């Protein structure tokens, strides 16, 4: 009996030793994995900072590029609503005659250097016509034409209303387009507003004008002031999140290192189990 108990004790000790070896191997692998995760967290945090700096620089460069493009277009003007093919053989001559006649600028030398339809395929018959792009030699003449058109408020060509506007870069065009639902509501209510360049909205309150820098800001403040009812509010398209904005929303909390804690706790439990088995034997 004593011999059998001794053999059983040796067998238990051998199995416990094997478990201890397996546990040691597992602990080593877990600690190695923790180290790799910690290294990856450090790399990820550093990489995120570098990418954020690069994206911030890219946004700054893009803003400067848009500004330069706007300056390059400062002598340009666009006319919207001119029917296709109405200009005949010379777009420039047709537009020059149209401007002088409709805006009462017959004695003004316009100095139009180039004039053509917006690039792109000719639209179908019932679609909106392409805009006409005009490049003036002098900035002041372009501004004179725009002011004359805006002062007249409504300009028609063969019964079709045409619109005069600045020639904005694509980025600014998208920002200005976001104000469309607000402008529609304000026009329906007969409220006075203005859309100064590049992409803002000015509303004239009794206390004075207020300028908004985004469509969301304008809609929120006008609803707060009671100028636009909640039921009348039409949300415009949400501006797409920038890469920098999306990256900043990504959160990853680094956990303080606890290497060795799991292994020490497991070894302590194993020692208690071994003592309990030996005492029972």
TrEMBL record:
Identification of the protein by name: LINE-1 retrotransposable element ORF1 protein
Domain of life assignment: Eukaryota
